Fold these 2 entries.
Entry 1:
Amino acid sequence: MAKIKVAVNGALGRMGQQTLHAVVADPDLELTAAADIKAEREHMSVPGLPKKTPLYNNLTSVIEMYHPQVVVDFTVPEAAMGAARLALKNGACLVMGTTGLSEANLKEIDDLAHRYKKGAVVAANFAIGAIIMIHLAKTAAKYFDNAEIIELHHDKKLDAPSGTALATARAMLQSRGKPFSYPGTEKETLKGTRGGQSEGIAIHSVRLPGLVASQEVIFGALGQTLSIRHDTVSRESFMPGIILAVKEVIHIYGLVYGLERLLKLGD
Ligand SMILES: NC(=O)c1ccc[n+]([C@@H]2O[C@H](COP(=O)([O-])OP(=O)(O)OC[C@H]3O[C@@H](n4cnc5c(N)ncnc54)[C@H](O)[C@@H]3O)[C@@H](O)[C@H]2O)c1
């Protein structure tokens, strides 16, 4: 079977570089070229590849010259939609990992993918363990009235709470169909100690050097607690999910939003 031709946009970034390694390491995939706005050279070395990989400072050149079947994007929200349009309009499928896209952006990607009969996978979290954590939390949410989320990330993270914590809370509430019970505190002597609150779920954000990304969802009921925890210890955790998306996206028409749909976890 012919290898799937892949191009990576944002190739000099943290996720982009890790994705290059993962693509090169997979026998079913061929890394054709890479793009990054910061590119100063025309080639880059990727460990595991004997020849150098063409590198451009724009995705347009990569698509025109190498015709990749799949474009993987890990850039910034401001650049991601341009890359999505370029890829889908020029015959490439899209795997989008860049976070911060709006509902309108997702709709546009879905429309474009249908119009050009291509597939697109957009996922805010490609770590398979994190997706399973959310899935398990959805199940538990039906059986417990109280729940809190503690998310722990490195000290350079820009936002709090994390997108994954908010997505987990949304999924739990949707599965439960009503808010959780939130035990009020009569006297909060240090403001914020009880965390933020989303329909009865308290969310606590820890930021420390030394951490990568972790999350624990704790459910409580009379005489028992249930804790579901996921730890990302390196960016390698995202790679199996990204590679799965690259292999599946060529068989899809339209947008698949969220890795859980590809893992066929059901409700
Ligand atoms: N979906 C997931 O599982 C997942 C996991 C981790 C990070 N992310 C997201 O991935 C994105 C990238 O994260 P990162 O840590 O690699 O960031 P980073 O800053 O290390 O890398 C981003 C790269 O994009 C490049 N870039 C910016 N504008 C560009 C453009 N117009 N064209 C081409 N390249 C451009 C930058 O030069 C940089 O090299 C962020 O949105 C982050 O939130 C998603």
Entry 2:
Amino acid sequence: MFLGHYGLALAAKSVAPKTSLGTTVLAAEFADALWPLFLILGWERVVISPGITRMTPLDFVSYPWLHSLLMDLLWAAGFAAVYFATKRYKAGAIVVFIGVLSHWVLDWASHRPDMPLTPWATQKYGLGLWNSVGGTVAVEALMFIGGLAIYLSRTNAKDRTGSVALWGLIALLVIIWAGAVFGPPPPSVNALKYSTLALWLTVPWGYWIDRHRFSVASLQTAKENRKS
Ligand SMILES: [Zn+2]
């Protein structure tokens, strides 16, 4: 799953309007953002094996620290605790918690059975949506477009940057996704490790977008306050 995670990050605006898109992107993509670092450090392992699923040639041989349910629960709790300690915003902390954890659930739906419940478990799970091109495209597109529609209905651009930056990110994500899905497999695991690091760009990009958009909810409260 790729676009679906971003769809949820966008949709989070409806629950926690004060939480920046940068934070919700980091939460929803937390496991995948740290993944290239864990590969470089040798803590997790992936093999390129074309045909292993119809959508991705990646065989996630060892995935204990970022894609096991138990670890994702702990990462979610840790991220939410740090967020709450610094922002004191309960809705945001809940959204961050669900965001990190949702990553495991969405990946579990997409992956072939390669996702463990605990780092030491040998039994692995996955519903294998990735074995269906049509199914994957439909689910990812629906979640991404749905999330974007919610984000657009909850925020307005303050200036031109607020629109350009948002649509730039949307275009970039669609291009990356289409390249990964329909393009050739990565030439090597090394190339994969270092190119996946580029995902980190989307986090500051999310903060940048958010600074140039305002929440429609806050505008309504301001209007109501002015009336009363
Ligand atoms: Zn993942």
